[in-house]
Amino acid sequence: YLFPEGILIPQLGLFLNLFSAKPGFFHDGNRAGLFEVEPDSGKLLNADLHIGSPRSGQQPSRPIHKIYQGGNVGHLHRLLSVASSSQILYVGDHIYGDILRSKKVLGWRTMLVIPELEQEVKLLSESKSTRKELRHLRMERDSIEDKIHRLEWSLKFENLTEDEKEKLFSEHDILLQKKEHVRRLHQEAQRQHHHKFHKVWGQLMKTGYQNSRFAHQVERFACLYSSQVTNFALYSPNKYYRPSEDYMPHEFDVLGL
Length: 257
Fold this sequence. Notes:
Elements: E1 15-18, E2 34-37, E3 44-46, H1 48-51, E4 66-70, H2 73-80, E5 89-92, H3 95-106, E6 109-113, H4 117-126, H5 128-157, H6 162-197, E7 206-207, E8 210-211, H7 213-221, E9 224-226, H8 249-255
Parallel strand pairs: 1-4, 5-6, 6-9
Antiparallel strand pairs: 2-3, 2-4, 7-8
């Protein structure tokens, strides 16, 4: 599904490795043999004979239009003439089986494929006005709470007359009712917003106002993430991907983020 119909991978100048047997493939000490597959006959040829084993000094030829089976990461590095592990971008859809192992053990750059992200981005784009309303309701609720706290402070510590106390108590009751009303509006708006993504779990990357555990794992283990690997076709293979800027809480209000 990655390529146009009728196009075979060998026609693109790539090579394909089948039955690599993860996770053993990721260990250079794995003694699995590497075989070249003849597409027409299906025969397996011992590729170690012409590319050399991972520990030999033999320089392999470029594996253009080749299909291989088995082997280990040492074979792969030799076939690609890789001088540094960071030259490889490994794409996978499993955090622990693909991304964490290849990054921690091998030092490869990693990209996590998250198919659900495509729908998430679409819904986020459509819900900009809802998110603005949620922020407004939350700020209004915080403002009311501040007023309530000031009134309670005055009632507790200031030397007030009975008439002044009665007036403040009346204002206090009104603010409590208003706070409860805003809280319910915010709660219902937030519930409807999350139901658009998933009726039970809400947004994939959020738990309430905080990033979900999955989101933390993505940030920690994946160098890049996207809904599908074909999104890379929109960019040059030489593109350098830079991280976005981090922000402190006070910067959100000052910069209007």
